[in-house]
Amino acid sequence: MDKLNIVGGTPLNGTIYISGAKNAVLPIMCAALLTDKEVVLRNVPKLLDVRSLISLLEHLGATCEFRAGLLRIKTTAIKATTAPYELVRKMRASVLVMGPLVARAGVAHVSMPGGCAIGTRPIDIHLDGLKAMGAEVTLDEGYVTVKAPSGLSGCEYTLPFPSVGGTENLLMAAVFAKGQVVLKNVAHEPEIVNLAEMLNAMGAKIVGAGTDTITIRGVSNLGGCTHSILPDRIETGTYAVAALMTNGKLTLRNTSLSLIQGLTQPLKKAGAIMEEHNGGFSIWRDGPIQPVDVVTEPYPGLATDLQAQFMALMTLAAGTSIIRESIYENRYMHVPELVRMGANIKVQGETAVVRGVPALKGAPVMATDLRASVSLVLAGLAAEGTTTVNRVYHLDRGYEHIEDKLNRCGAHVSRSNGSD
Length: 420
Ligand code: UD1
Description:
Helix 1 (about 20-30) packs parallel to helix 2 (about 50-60), helix 6 runs parallel beside helix 7 and helix 8 (about 235-245) packs parallel to helix 12 (about 370-380). The chain is elongated. By secondary structure, it is α/β, with parallel strands linked by helices. The model has no long low-confidence stretch (mean pLDDT about 95). It has 14 helices and 24 strands. Strands 22-23-1-24 form a four-stranded mixed β-sheet. Strands 2-15-17-16 form a four-stranded mixed β-sheet. The protein folds into two domains: about 1-20 and about 230-415, UDP-n-acetylglucosamine1-carboxyvinyl-transferase, Chain (Alpha-beta prism), CATH 3.65.10.10; about 20-230, Enolpyruvate transferase domain (UDP-n-acetylglucosamine1-carboxyvinyl-transferase, Chain, Alpha-beta prism). The protein binds uridine-diphosphate-N-acetylglucosamine.
């Protein structure tokens, strides 16, 4: 399995071009199953998760062509309605084929995603919403079967929690509903807005994406479209933190400060100076990193997907900060690894107390999820000596060309093979 070797201690200076968002492209690719016409997606990042989802879509009957950021998907007919365990296990977002399959084919068999490294992560909200639209849901041998042979119907459904995937699956399921589906307490994330824009470009009738309530008026079919994937706000936040941790100055292009609004205040309090310009912003600091208390929240609050990176920053703050993870019950796997690099962090329940230290020391480390892995890369960039981050495949799931992007700004990151 590949590993990254990082020789730390060099300030990062230069420009990084932010890729299309992983969490936007995955649901949008699934939405392409809703039409027999061609869907053309621009600004698609070259990621392992995109590859995995292409395999799943091809298994279901789609033809996909992916070259230089452009992904063409055409699903003349749905040939299979099962998302098998092997694919869902690798990538939880595979459950997002459920809504489109039920809407277009009247049935979906999807392996239950089960737990993952960051928590139990059930899909009860997805299933309850589908039931509210009249689907029949059964569970058997680890698979959930959702049936609506005569189509889904209009309804009003209030999500008990604004689940991102739940909102996306229900939005896609509802596009052909008979009548009107009103979804309340939905997620507000920009990725939801990007999905709704794409569905509307295909001919869907969706209003309210980006607010608490989304209304979908069912249509009889959808056409093709050309659609651009929005910039990755988590990648943006990650490199913003990298600039501060290494005491360099980065210009991030193809992004905006408004995309990371839950992070900008904490970054400012930590001492960041941010200058917005056309098509991006620059970020640096001119003093020590200040401690900041934060809580992760649904959008527009601080994203849970940036918690590990922000914690890495706080390990070098001039004081103590308190971080509370409110979205997942078990998202501190990076803590013991950061501690091995010299950080001082104590976790109690959902709260982490981070006492800043003057410097981190390079070490061999390993992480069990994507964002935890990247927090260790950040720590390695700022640390004295060499850090080896094992299990790089986690990073390859969500960060396009990570070592190239960092090395162009002065980092010393190399990839090698080796067991972990
Ligand atoms: C998406 C993101 C992920 C991010 C998360 C929260 C993608 C591909 N992934 O994941 O990177 O960390 O949003 O911002 O977009 N929950 C339930 N029942 C459900 C669904 C969710 O209890 O049916 C709980 C989960 O266990 C979790 C919380 O709700 O504790 C948030 O989950 P959700 O918003 O659904 O996240 P995902 O869509 O899985």
